[in-house]
Amino acid sequence: MKKINIAIDGPSGVGKSTVSELIAKKFNLKFINSGSLYRAISLFFFQKLGKEQFKQILDEKYVLDNWNIKQLFLDPFGNLFLDNVKIENKDLRKDEISWGASKIAKYKLIRSQIVSFLQDYSEKEKGVIMDGRDTTFVVLPNAELKIFLWASAEIRATRRMEQNQELGFKTNYEELLKEIEERDFQDMNRENDPLHKTDDAILIDSSNMNIQEVVNKISELILERINNE
Length: 229
Ligand code: C5P
What we know:
About 55% of the residues lie in helices and about 15% in strands. It is of the alpha/beta class. Cytidine-5'-monophosphate binds next to helix 2, helix 5 and helix 9.
């Protein structure tokens, strides 16, 4: 089967990673979760500074002076390492780490480091599915299929609460909704590469769809693209 590149953008908690992982398995593509790189930098500072200082001093100069992209390594299987230690997904998913990732993701130089890192990684072979906030227009502008995955903030908060429960974190719906709205605001209104739907991306509103329905819809689009290549 012909290999194509797929870019999926959308707000936090919309299910991009879950869907992308399933699509990657189904079509034998390499899955790259670009948000995990921003999260890994956030985790680095959280571990270095502790909860209180982390919230206070994560400004651009501090981050740039104390961080080097060479601290990150992504192996061919998609495992991410920070200072040679494999990062566990559950450590990246905590709400403080999400907050820090969104903050760090506003900084232009950090963004360009991560974009180069992702482009170098995905250049080696065709056949990647990458999700994020800028993959359709910055990281993979030539992707054969571009998707903008959407769901309302309320639905995303409910889904995130269920995920957190499965991971064993206790969370409050109102707080989660507020965090999601704050992150949406940061992601959609930042100066550098704000999240938006490009004209050539296909909108999938998953508010009333389950994961399998989204996977089926994207699978149809992939088959159409493969047949037209
Ligand atoms: O996708 P995820 O929620 O894991 O991403 C964490 C944060 O990283 C997002 O809130 C967003 O601010 C940032 N991000 C980004 N560009 C990407 C991927 C993630 O700005 N391509």
